[in-house]
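Troubleshooting: if your tokenizer reports a length mismatch, compare your output against this known-good record of 402 residues.
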Amino acid sequence: MPTTIATKSASLNWPLMKNNIAREDLDAVCDLLHQDDPILTQSKNVEAFEEEWSRWLGVDYSVFVNSGASANLITLAAMKEMYGAGGEVIVPSITWVSDIASVLHCGFEPVFVDIDPRTLGMDNAEVLAKITPRTRAVFPTHVLGYNALSRPLIDELKTRRIPLLEDVCESHGATFEDRKLGTFGLASNFSFYYAHHLSTIEGGMVCTNDYDLYETTRMLRSHGMVREMKCNGRKWDYSDEFPDLNPDFIFAFPAYNVRSTEINAVIGRSQLKRLDNANRRRIENLQLFLRNLDPDLYRTDFATEGSCNYAFTLILKHPDKGLCESVMTALRKSGVEFRRGTAGGGNQLRQPYLRSLFGQDAWKACPNADHVHFFGFYIGNYPTLDRDRIQRLCELLNGLGK
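Known-good structure output:
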């Protein structure tokens, strides 16, 4: 039976992402390039994209950068410059490396928590249990389109005045309590990598309602230059304090150059026009996928309310090495591209850069993340997938348990 199904599905030809840069996006770039002497470095299109994204998301300010990793970095760097270095940041055991790296690079200590298997995000009860007087921020990742927040977590952080930093790199358009993720904390980070809901090829965004954080991240994006601030009054304050410096070249922080370009912004502006329609199709696709999977073999009880997934989460219900190998073999034979361990390659505490800091056995404290590490996968979900192919994939996967 499994052999027959695999043969039937051999032509699935299913990459992680397909056609995510449309012809209309490329035409918009061509229009820019056909101008006489077009400005290609950060300019008016970057600013317009930031404003349009802010309106779409529902925040006051956005800062466009060259990657989601850079968004992580300057957000944590802003926390350091505004509030001082040192202390702990609570982070998930399943996330992308740049979240943890930004915490480390900016002089904070990451405190890891296990995941909630229904959201793949941080176990909120464990987060609350690990808050100490040294906690400087809580930095959840909304993994693969699922919401990682709860009302008790949000309320307790507000009561304790602990900043919430949201990683929404994989969850554009997902919601909690009818509000888009990325609007609940002090700041939120997005990635516009090729495989994500909206792509600028490479790119990212820092979003906030806090004007001080906005101005700080603008400077951190561009060498720490004071002239990057929007507020002329603040620029004049620096000029008055440092009269021996050229006002165009006052550097407030030892910062970075993580600017993006007009080309990337033009692609983002073009894609944003169809993001909501594309997301609706992704939501329908995931529901179809989960409805047709065998719940005795795979997890199908994810907390999907408000989710918006650019990938299908395929996680074995029980630790079964034989089934795991069969899944990988069948997907490869069918031409279905996948990633094992979901976001970031699974349990981050198993990675060399953290083993050297936290010890060889630190991963044992996160058994739910470790199950996903070995028995979890993701498969691409995009608007052009048709229902028949999704159902054929489920048929293939369900047959592996017979």
